[in-house]
Design goal:
With 392 residues, this protein is an alpha/beta fold. The protein is 57% helix and 13% strand.
Length: 392
Amino acid sequence: MKTVLASFLGKGPLNKETNRFEYGEVKYHRGSFEKQTRFIQVAVAAYLEREGEQLDEVIIFATKEARKHQEKNLRLAWRQAELVMPLRFVDVADGGSQSEAESIFAKMIEKIPAGEVTLHFDVTHGFRIQPIIGLWSMEFHEALQKDFRLGEIFYGEFNSREILVLTEIARVRDWVQSIRQFKESGQLRLLASLAGSAQAAARRQSYPANMGALASKLGKFADYVEAAALEKAADFAKEVLAAIGLAESDTHVSVFLKPVLAELRELFDPICAKVGFRAQFSIIQWVAETGRLQLGLVLATEWLISVRMRHEDIYDADRRKEVSWSMSSRDAASGPLVRAFVAVQELRNSYSHAWMNRADLPKNPYETGEKQLRKAVVLMEEVLEEIGGRDD
């Protein structure tokens, strides 16, 4: 795994006494770390080394003017700081026009190393739109390259000289995407991944956090649901809710995570407020509402068979197929359970045969299937009413 630091280099302010563009020497700091230097790149590289990161290369993106005034000074400061990792300079445009902005993006994509790379990014001296173009190019590269990972995002604050780590803030687009995926299609994987990243960030910054438990439990809950293990999913939901509570109590929780936790609580509170088949049914409702037709059909089928077996005191799992055939062959007037089962099976058959078993092929089969699944879920609610309190 290669570790790289990328940074923008500016032209620097004009020193009226020397009539040269130059950065003044300041003391950058982060926590107990301090570094006296003219260049933020020196401070960040030294900080990463102290944190155990062995940098293989430092890439400096700079305009021709910036290189003209500062390249020699930075190389001198590099040697004085006894930093041994090589510096590689890459020319970029100012970014003062549409074409220049696009050229910065293209150049950064071209020059960022491919393969197994962790890339840290310093945006302190990015000029005009360079920082945001730089971040977008890093995200784009991360999406395309399987083994590429965007590490920490650094900014040297002008007044306090503190080295800020803006990684979690820079990930706001990921949080937006994760919330959208969760609300629109019930996907938990990206949320779990981001929770894990938040835990790793907390660990690097040496403060306690409770995001690791939430990350693993969200992933496990998703595994149970996707494997149609409804009973296990409903029971495990309580552990997820407890992990949400711990994360909410964390004083260091990211500002972007608070609304996400609220959304998750809206899902898991109703599940955990119920028991047995009712808790399982809440999961099926959620799957149907988020448009996952195939998974919803599988879960509905298994739930209806389980309800039938439990209330006929059938505990032999080998008889599930027999019970299924029994409900399929009965008249829909037999009751809400059979009526719901027949509706689900008809929809499942249509979906399995690409709707070719129907004379009235819908214009939008999947959308039609989603609506019919929701109707089947309404029929399943009648089943809950029929079984009354017998839901264990």
